[in-house]
Design brief:
The chain is an alpha/beta fold. The protein has helices spanning 3-22, 29-80, 84-93, 99-111, 154-157, 218-223, 227-250, 265-268, 281-293, 309-316, 327-334; strands spanning 117-119, 161-165, 173-175, 199-201, 208-216, 271-277, 303-307, 337-340, 355-361, 369-382, 392-404, 410-416. The strands form three sheets. Strands 1, 2, 5, 10 and 11 form a five-stranded mixed β-sheet that branches. The chain has a five-stranded mixed β-sheet with strand order 6-12-9-7-8. Strands 3-4 form a two-stranded antiparallel ribbon. Helix 1 packs antiparallel against helix 2 (29-80). Residues 128-145 have low confidence and may be disordered.
Length: 417
């Protein structure tokens, strides 16, 4: 109980005792002395009550902050205890899920239908302290499992935002009109009329399903122990990141793939500029200037650039006449957010070889594109494919889509030699 509440209760008791004593016409000496003691205690308690309120005010503020963030904190703590190994053993042996893993799976199933075991996206994060390479497991000493090498997430480095959708579709209104300002020409004249504020909906739709298949041998299940937990987590994370990066930029919109930035550029109104010359800082500077003129960026530091590694190789080998400074040095000095990927952009073609570059920027905190994911990852077991060898065949299904916010926040440069 708070001290202020205790003091309030005591003050109420003192008032009741004083009321009984004051009502007597001829109080005794002891009663008169008691009235003096109660009066002194009441005045002292008033001082203590004010001090208690001041002290408890800070406690209330801290408690309020804790309440505001408690749900996120508790979810993060539960997610920290989620184990992929339990999911694999549940699908392989029918073992019961326990602890945080069982709690998360139960919560996800209550929110949507899954054929297998739902895995929240947070469970695929690469946690601090994990090893990315190591030896081969053996019965005597179990070392971390060697993982395949996957491309790092380029979509996040280019400013994209991942949005998780529970059910249905999620539409993002995009501003398409301009705001005008002007002066009244005379004392009684009108200012320029308002421009209609219109929006364009570009919905994310759950039409595209990505599947990741993993094969876990019986030896791995029996021998790897806790190492299997991190191996499955990183393997699935890397495979999804690789496929997602490619779909965001190179998705064809056909054969089940979402429409990527390059394929949807014309429909979304993204500016495409032909360079048809050797890659240089001057070519990228012109694109940065166009961003600034359109009020989409304040400086070159606000722009993110995606290139093929071959473009970096050519620019770093091209020196400015009479100096030891290369075109690559000039570029990276002004644009710090440069991503190089052989997965998100197609290989150069033609003679001389030509590639594509993509520039993006954030405006008012709005990302240039959104990546939508629906619900959780559905992990399903194939009980027949590896039944003869006792292995475990898993299929992870994820529903995703891509959409662009404002087209002015993205520009494509073609013919970059």
């Amino acid at each position: 109980m708070l001290d202020s509440v205790k003091i309030q209760r005591r003050q109420s008791e003192i008032r009741q005792e004083l009321a009984a004593l004051v009502g007597k016409d001829n109080p005794s000496e002891d009663e008169t002395r008691s009235m003096g003691d109660l009066d002194t205690e009441y005045r002292n308690n008033e001082t203590r009550y004010r001090a208690a309120l001041i002290a408890e005010d800070e406690e209330r503020r801290e408690a309020g902050q804790e309440l505001e963030t408690r749900s996120d904190t508790e979810w993060a703590e539960v997610m920290a205890g989620f184990e992929m190994r339990q999911v694999a053993l549940a699908l392989d042996e029918g073992r019961q899920l326990e602890g945080a893993t069982a709690e998360v799976v139960s919560e996800m199933r209550a929110q949507g239908g899954y054929r297998g075991v739902p895995i929240p996206w947070e469970a695929l994060e690469i946690r601090a302290g994990e090893t990315l390479a190591g030896g081969t497991p053996d019965p005597i000493r179990t070392a971390p499992i060697i993982d395949r090498l996957f491309a790092s997430s380029v979509a996040a480095r280019m400013g994209g935002s991942m949005v998780n959708v529970g059910v249905g579709e999620l539409e993002y209104p995009v501003t398409t009109s301009d705001v005008t300002a002007g002066w009244a020409t005379t004392e009684t004249g009108d200012v320029p009329g308002p421009t209609a504020y219109t929006t364009l909906d570009r919905p994310l739709k759950p039409d595209h399903n990505l599947g990741v298949q993993m094969r876990i041998t019986r030896k791995t299940l029996k021998q790897s122990g806790s190492g299997l937990e991190q191996a499955v987590r990183r393997d699935m994370n890397g495979a999804i990141a690789e496929a997602l990066d490619r779909a965001v930029f190179l998705g064809s919109g056909a054969a089940g793939e979402p429409t990527g930035i390059l394929a949807g550029a014309a429909a979304w109104g993204i500016t495409e500029t032909a360079i048809d010359a050797a890659a240089s800082w001057a070519a990228f500077r012109a694109a940065v200037i166009r961003f600034m003129v359109a009020n989409a960026a304040n400086s070159a530091g606000d722009v993110r650039l995606l290139l093929r590694p071959e473009v970096m190789d050519g620019m770093d080998d091209t020196l400015i006449s009479g100096t030891a400074v290369s075109e690559w040095d000039r570029l990276t000095k002004r644009i710090s957010n440069v991503a190089l990927s052989s997965n998100a952009l197609a290989a150069p073609t033609g003679s001389p070889a030509e590639s594509i570059a993509i520039l993006t920027t954030n405006v008012g905190g709005v990302p240039p594109f959104f990546v939508g994911t629906w619900g959780a990852i559905d992990l399903i077991r194939d009980p027949y494919a590896d039944a003869a060898s006792g292995g475990l065949r898993l299929t992870a299904l994820a529903t995703m889509d891509v959409t662009v916010s404002r087209s002015v926040q993205t520009e494509i440069l073609t013919g970059v030699q």
